[in-house]
Automatic annotation (TrEMBL):
This is Mannitol dehydrogenase. It is an enzyme of class 1 (oxidoreductase). Gene3D superfamilies: N-(1-d-carboxylethyl)-l-norvaline Dehydrogenase, domain 2, NAD(P)-binding Rossmann-like Domain. Residues 289-475 form the Mannitol dehydrogenase C-terminal domain. It holds the Pfam family Mannitol_dh_C. Its EC number is 1.1.1.67. InterPro entries: 6-PGluconate_DH-like_C_sf, 6PGD_dom2, Mannitol_DH, Mannitol_DH/Oxidoreductase, Mannitol_DH_C, Mannitol_DH_N, NAD(P)-bd_dom_sf. It comes from Profundibacterium mesophilum KAUST100406-0324. Keywords: Oxidoreductase. Residues 32-279 form the Mannitol dehydrogenase N-terminal domain. The gene is mtlK.
Amino acid sequence: MDELIPLSNESLGRMPGDVRLPRYDRTRLTPGIVHVGLGNFHRAHQAWYLHRLFDEGRDLDWAILGAGIMPGDAAQREKLRAQDWMTTLIELDPETTSAEIVGSMCGFVPVEEGHRPLIEAMADPNIRIVSLTVTEGGYYRDATGGLDTDHPDIRHDAHTPDAPRTVFGAMVAALRIRRDAGRGPFTGLSCDNLQGNGDILRRTVLGIARAVDPELAVWIEAECSFPNSMVDCIVPATGPKELALVEQHGIADRSPVTHETYRQWVIEDDFCAGRPALEHVGATFTRKVAAHEAMKLRILNAGHQLLANIGELRGHDTIAQCMADPEISGFFHKVLNDEIVPHVAPVPERTPGAYVELVSRRFSNPAIVDTPRRVAFDGSSRHPGFVLPSIRDGLAADMSIEGLALAEVLWARMCIGTRLDGTQIAPNDPNWARLQDAAQAARTDPALWAAQEWIYGDLAHESRFIEAFTRRYGDVAERGPDAVLRDYAGAA
C-alpha cells in the first residue's frame, strides 16, 4: 500500500481521486452553530448536511463549532484538531464503499470543568443555534418525563450557575449573558432520538433557568425556540475495521466514520434567530414533526431493541447477522407488523408497513457492521422511549402485547449478564448494576422486573402488562429463549 495521506487542509489537494472533497473554501467558514456531542452520528448526519449545503456555495456563516462536556470529549477534540476538524465518511453500500471528506466544522471549544469556554462560545451573538446529540438518557428526566430536579448535577447547576456541570446549565448561563448584553436568543435544537425532543429540551432548560433566575426563564420562554426534529441514519461505532477501511482509501484519519447510504432529517420550522437553508440538500422542514418522529422511533428504534437483546444473548456479532437469523427476523417482523404498526400513523410519503420493509432492508445490509452491543446500550433509556409507548397503545386498544412483553423478557434476561452459551456480557448501561439486581431478583419473582417504576412508570401498576410479562418470563425460564422465540416467530 502507498503511504497514507494524513487528513489536513494542506493535504486535501493530494487526496486520491476517488475521494470526494469539500467544494468550498474552508477559510471562508464562520461559526453559526455550536454543536455539543461530536460523536459519529453527528459527523455522519448533521455535519454532512451542512457540508453539502456549503458545497452549493450557500450559508458559509453557519459552520459548526464543536463542543463537549465529558472528559472523553477532550481526547476527541485533540484527534479532530490534528486534522483541521475534518472527518472522513465511508459510505457502506452492500456492493462497494466510497469516501468523502466533510469539512463543515471550523473549531472545537476547549473542554474544561465549569464549561466557561463553552458558555462564552454560546454567548457569542454570531451563534444562532445550539444543537445537541447527548443520547436519549442525557436529559435528566424523571419517571414521568419531567426534569429530575433531585439529580445531583441539576441541583449543582441550580446553585452554581456560573460553573455548571451539564450542557443545559451551560445553555442557561450563556442565555443569561446574552439577555443581559442585549445579544438576543438562540435556538436550541435537539438531534437525539426522543419523541418531542425539542419540547424535552425546552423543559430541561426552563427547569434549570427557573431555579437560577425566574425572570430569565420568562425571557427564555418568550424569546428562544426549541424545534422538534427527527434524525435517521445508521452509524456504527469506529473500531479496527473502520480504521482499516479508511486506510484502504489511502487516508490517515484518527476518527473516521462509517454510515449507511440512507439519511433523513425532519425539522420543525421554528427558529428564533434564523437557520441555514438545509432544505436545499434534502432536509424536510415542517410544522408537523410528530408523525415522522413516531414512525421512526416506534419502528426503527424499537426494532433495533427487538434485535439487539436476543442478538446479544445468541452471540451474534452484527445486526445484519440478527436479520439473517430466521427466528430473530421472524420475531422482529411479527412484533412490528402485529403489535406496533397498528398504532403508527402514516406520513405523506410513506405508510408504516412500507417503513418496516425499508428498515428491514437497511438492517440487513451486511456492509454495516453495527453490533447488538452498541444498539442495546442504555436500554434503561431506550426501552422506555421506543418500546413502552406501543405497549401502552396496545393495552389502550385492547390488542395483543405478547411479542412486546417477550421483548421485555429478553431484555431482562440479557441484563443477567450471561449469553445463552454461558459467556459473559460486559456492563452495557449507565444503570447496569441496578438492572442486574432487578434481573437476578426476577429469576425468583418475575413481577419484580416489570414493577420497576423508574423504567415502566404507569405500566409497573398495569396488571395486564405484569401478567403478560410474568407469563412470558416463565415460559422462557422453563423452555429457554430459543424455543419460545421459535414458537412465537412461527405462529400464524
